[in-house]
Amino acid sequence: MFTKLDADFPKGWRQTFGALWLGCFITGLGFSMTMPFMPLFMESLGTYSQTQLNFYSGLAFSATYLSQAIMSPLWGSLADQKGRKLMCLRASGVMALTITATGLAQGVWSIIALRFLQGAFSGYINNAAAFIAGETPKRRSGTVLSTMMTANVTGNLLGPLFGGAIAGLGGYRLPFFVTGALMALAFILTAILTREHFIPITKEKMKPAKEVLVSLPNKSLIFLMFTTTLIVQASLMSISPIISLLVKELMHNHGNVSFVSGVVAAAPGFGTLLAARYLGKKMDASGPTKVLMCGMTYQVVMFLPMFFIRDVWLLTLFRFLIGLSSAALLPAVQTVLTTQVDKQVFGRIFSYNQSFQAAGGVVGPLIGSAVSSVFDYEGVFLFTSLLLAINLALIMLAHKKIA
Q1: CATH class given for the domain over 9-193
Q2: Where does the chain cross the membrane (predicted)?
Q3: pTM value > 0.85
Q4: In terms of CATH, what superfamily is 207-403?
């Protein structure tokens, strides 16, 4: 994957990267193997109205993001004291247990509680990004973090296929057991194959969070990147809950709506996989901020015509085109953070960024539901374009301050 590594890459870097990439792939795979079937699994546990089922499913979905947003700063502080490898082990180990326990659940409230617990201890992907960023020369961060992103995207693309096949063979509980076993494998791979060159910070010498933020050389830029993470994630999540409903409307409830919905939902992922490596190299060559602004401009333009689309395959095409630029957004934000902060505070800065991303996961579906109820499904695309345009304007204003 990386044919020419510079001499300043630490020994064992390739092996560490490979293990973390597989861990992120497994995490993405496991999430998308189980989440699409959560409402059906809940439905099998009792007799619920459609309104109740929608409520419980939404609660189970958002509970993970909510607890993740709350707990991430705590884990970030611990990461700066103990290292990012330990945080990856904590996340994969606890997720293996909670996901397996979810497969054994006998009621919806047990599932919701386990999802909340899972979110409180999750964070493998973000910690893996902080881990590998700390092991990588800053001038190569764009390529490395963009390539790392392909792991999660690939897992999310393949997950529903594997999850559907496994559920068809052994019922809705089996995907949770398989995912639990895979997360245990991610724990083992991370424990054995990764090597972290980390200098611990004692609790006494560790600066308080407020002091860390105040001492940052470009505080406004850092907080703008946090906000960008929230808006990008909210934009992605605002569309997701209504995709199947929009597809059903565009197909006039004829044909295989489930299959076509899966294709439409997966289309951005294919675009991201195709463009990730190229955009990563552009970040290293031209700077992450320029790539971020270009990617956001592109998405603003692409979302606008989707408001007028009345053909499901044209919708699929535009979602694929949007996916081409997705690799220029969150990886670019992470690369900006990598270049702006000292390695000693990577854990906390990346954890704050994770909190904002999790908040986007909570806010996004709420925005999508509210906008679609007032302006119909297509209105979400228009609102998303406006949201990204505002964010783009803020980044352009701050561009002169970015090194």
Answers
A1: mainly alpha
A2: 20-41, 53-75, 95-117, 149-170, 176-199, 220-247, 259-279, 291-309, 315-337, 358-375, 381-398
A3: no
A4: MFS general substrate transporter like domains (1.20.1250.20)
